[in-house]
Each structure stands twice: as structure tokens, then as C-alpha cells.
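A common beginner's mistake is to predict each chain separately and then try to dock the pieces by hand. The better habit, illustrated here, is to supply every component at once so that their relative placement is modeled jointly.
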Amino acid sequence: MGDFWSTTILNYCIALGVVLGGSFLGGIGAFFGNKPPMDAMLNLSEQLKIWALVAALGGTFDTIRTFEVHILGGELSQVFQQLIFILSAFSGAHFGTLLIRWLIQGDLGG
Amino acid sequence: MNGSRLRLLVSFILGILCGAVWMTLLYGQTLDGLYLERDAIYYANNQKLKEIQLLQQELNKYAEQDAHRRETSSKIQKIAVEVESSEKFGQELIKEKVEEIVEPFRGKSVEWVSNNPDVLDTLFKERTIRLSEQNRPVELKIELKYLAFIDNTLKIWVKAREISEKGVTVGRKRFAIPLVSLYYYTR
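With all components supplied together, the output reads:
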């Protein structure tokens, strides 16, 4: 497996883990904080989505800088790779959110 | 602490976390339902509390109004005197004199007077009045017989009997005086 695919899967899993872990542990925290745990988990999964994306990509600023460097250098394939990384991280985060929603509400609908 | 024990401790903590997550997933829905129910109960309780406070305010308002009404209505505003005497004439003069005697009670609280009737009794004890009737002075002994409150009216019944001056016999019939009895009628 090449470096590209391993990074893509890694990004996906990191984003998924951030959303799932954050939501689950946030639910436990909500329980100890005298708040409804499932409701807190649902809200956290939505709120953590963007941060999961950022965490998976290793900081948005670096990605943007990579974009700039590759676009100016004429390496469009590298730009495309970065886009794939972003998409995979987003997919992981979104899947995590969907998973939490399904777990709590029983359906995948908003 | 060696490495294996540290690993054991970390594994234990992770196990606790996993267990907590598992319990949250297992009982989360029930807990959410209970929290919702609690919120609904709090809301209903607050509504009831507001209702109680509103009713309490209304009750206080009415109580104040009632107290004010009682305060104004429980003062003696009128004094009515009834005289029991063998004399048919001159009763109005006696009434006037008796009214003068009890005049200080006008404006006083009905409750206070009814709680202290002995004040009135003392007022009439051994009380004599002098009338100038038909150009001849007449001395009368006044005794309180009954006392009643009808709304704001203090109604008193007095017995009047003529007493002869020392060494002078007045040709009038004497009456046996019954014991002074007090009768309270407060509304």
C-alpha cells in the first residue's frame, strides 16, 4: 500500500476516532455533570466534526500552505492528493457523526 | 512502579473508560428520558409555585381589604342608651346625661371595649346624676344593666332610680336593683 492510501486511511480513522471518542467520553462527562448523556453525545458529534477534520489533517494552516506551494509550483497532482486527504478526513468525521446519530436516534436522518 | 504494573494501571483506567462508555450506551436513553421527565416536573412545579404565589398575593390583598374594612367598621360610631326607670318623664334627660358619660367611648374599638367591659361597669358604679326637673333638683343613681354591640352601635341599658338626699324623703317608689349584668353582643 502506497504512502498516499495509508495517509488517506489514517486521516479517515483519526477523524472517526476524534468524533467517536470525543462524543463517548463527552457523554460520560455529561452524565457526571448531571446532564442528559445521549443528548450531549449527539450535540458533541456535530460540534466535533470540524475539529476532527482539523486534527486529522494536522492543522488547517499547513494544508493551505501546501496548496499554495503546489499550485504555484504547478504540481496539480499534489493538490489533488491534498483534496483527497481532506475528503477522507471529512468522510471519517461525517461517518462518526452518522454512527452516533444512528446509535442515539435509531435512524440516520437529520 | 515497574513497567508491568504501570501497564496494568493504564489498562485498568482504559477498562473503566470502556465500561463507562458501555454503560452510557446501555442506559443513556433511559437517563435521557428521566432527565426529560425531571425537566417537565420542574416546569410543572414552577408553574404551580407561580400559581400559589399569585393566589397568596390575592389572598393577602383581600386580607388587607378585610382588615381595613374591619378597622373602619369596628369603631364605636353611635351610642344608644335605653333607660329603665319608673319615671315616664325625664328619660330623655337621663339618656343625654348617660350619653355624656359614655361619650369618651365613641371612636374606640369595639373589640377593646368588649374585651374590657369592666371599664364601663366601673364608670357607672356608684354613679349619680343630677337633673333639674320642673324646677326641683332630682338626684338619680345610675346602674348599668346590659351592654350590647350592634354593628358600630354601642347600646347600653341603664337603670335609673331616684335617691333621696340626706334627711329629705322623696315620695317616690324605690325599686329593688338587680345585680348588674353585662351582656355582650358582638357581631
